[in-house]
């Protein structure tokens, strides 16, 4: 099993729209995701890591606990990036309006820098992109 098909009536019963954020639990292992729609079918992705953590294999039948995830998605900004955002109100406003996935991309780019000068350059690049 690489993904799980979810009946439309289950998605409707969650009450979170067509692609609701959900908490998935299989065999006591939980993770957060979002229902996807592909070719008219509602699907939940099941990564290799989550499959291994849940102790299931491709083709296994599983019982899935699915709950609407109402917790806000929070992305923690590194202190130096937060300072740079706070110094530029237009960049801060643009960043705050981003979806969590886009915020994570900015934060990941900054935190994955190995050298301080690379990190600073990436912060400056992010601020410039947000400002425009």
From TrEMBL:
InterPro entries hit by this protein: AF2212/PG0164-like_sf, DUF1905
Domain of life of the native organism: Bacteria
Pfam family, one: DUF1905
Name of the protein this chain belongs to: DUF1905 domain-containing protein
